[in-house]
Design goal:
Layout: E1 14-19, E2 24-27, E3 30-32, H1 39-50, E4 54-59, E5 71-74, H2 78-88, E6 94-97, E7 104-106, E8 125-127, H3 131-138, E9 143-150, H4 154-164, E10 169-174, E11 186-187, E12 189-193, E13 198-200, E14 204-205, H5 206-225
Parallel strand pairs: 1-4, 1-6, 4-5, 6-9, 9-10
Antiparallel strand pairs: 2-3, 7-8, 10-12, 11-14, 12-13
Bound molecules: cytidine-5'-triphosphate (CTP) and calcium ion.
Length: about 230
């Protein structure tokens, strides 16, 4: 029978976590970005490492310390994140996509600094690839966990993403709520499973939420093996 040391429930598993926001250059000095700091993803990576997993953290720019023993891959743009994720995906057992990936990028990246002129400035954006959607299409043995950042209709929007992206779980947070979402130490989430179950958690540390997400994943791993 399999034996796992106490507290090392993820020994032998490779966990891929994405964190932080991507940044999309406009010219050599400017970029489009978002408010993600990486806290949620770094907390998940730390929890997974603590449970004995091999952890790869693919991160947009973040000032946070890399948890001990976690392999970090630093990226800037959504397309770089996609390349890094697709490289690690085939050998991953669990994928948790906490990153705030930019949906759009400037269509033209100026080689030189853009000089100001009188009047308005129009910026044309084009779509970035949806990394998580692609993973949902490619999914084989992997357990796939997505996030949904919403400011309204949290439950409906989150469930739609769960289905469309072929996920096992989605972690939904209302980023307009106080002490939850971007840049905070805490978060308030609802987790939806593909079988329709839902768990509504109170405000707690991102580290505790990371642990809860992994508990759900471990529960599913157990169901998959029996
Ligand atoms: N995601 C991704 N690639 C993108 C956009 C999002 O992999 N280009 C992932 C995020 O990492 C997250 C999930 O998809 O796990 C949901 O992201 P979110 O921004 O909430 O949803 P979108 O599908 O982008 O839809 P919208 O922003 O329009 O609500
Ligand atoms: Ca988005």
């Amino acid at each position: 029978a399999a034996f796992f040391a106490k507290g090392k429930e993820l020994a032998g598993k490779k966990v891929l976590v994405t964190a932080g926001g991507t940044i999309e250059p406009l010219d050599p000095v400017r970029y489009l970005g978002n408010r993600s700091t990486g806290r949620m993803g770094y907390a998940i990576a730390q929890q997974a490492k603590g449970r004995g997993a091999e952890v790869v953290l693919i991160s947009g720019p973040s000032a946070l310390p890399v948890p001990d023993g976690v392999r970090i891959v630093r990226v800037e743009t959504a397309r770089q994140m996609r390349d890094a994720v697709l490289r690690e995906f085939p050998t991953a057992d669990i994928v948790i996509k906490a990153a705030a990936v930019a949906d759009y990028r400037p269509k033209i990246v100026a080689a030189d600094k853009i000089k100001k002129q009188d009047g308005e400035f129009t910026l044309v954006l084009e779509r970035n690839p949806d990394i998580l959607y692609e993973l949902g299409q490619k999914k084989a043995h992997q357990i796939l966990v997505g996030f949904a950042a919403e400011t309204q209709h949290v439950e409906d929007y989150a469930k739609a993403k769960l289905a469309k992206k072929n996920l096992d779980f989605i972690v939904a947070n209302d980023v307009s709520e106080k002490d939850a979402g971007f840049g905070t130490e805490t978060n308030r989430v609802k987790i939806f499973a593909r079988d329709g179950r839902m768990w509504d958690y109170p405000l707690m540390s991102k580290s505790a939420i990371g642990g809860i997400i992994l508990d759900h994943v471990q529960e599913q791993l157990k169901d998959d093996t029996v």
